[in-house]
Known about the structure:
mainly beta; 4-stranded antiparallel β-sheet
Amino acid sequence: QVHLVESGGGFVQAGGSLRLSCAASGSGFRSWLMSWYRQGPGKQRELVASISPTGIIDYADSVKGRFTISRDNAKNTAYLQMNSLKSEDTDVYFCNGRFYARNFWGRGTQVTVSS
Length: 115
């Protein structure tokens, strides 16, 4: 069965950087749309970035110029490089894989940025 595991979260000061990883099980990774979402306590989940199987990338306006999404199909892994972090980036970050109407979620990794 499909299994996504996020890693790389932690605590950083404003202006610092983190790289999140999403490791996927199975053989269908290269055909999935991969996305990163984030959600804090009492907040709605929002899309941060996505990358299609052919490399088409989209970012939320709030992270453009600071975050970079990428994927390594040989490793079945998606990444989110986060630079110039701000306190408002503090959230739990979730990895999502989509194949047509099917969606798969990781359990999330906490990112905390000091003010």
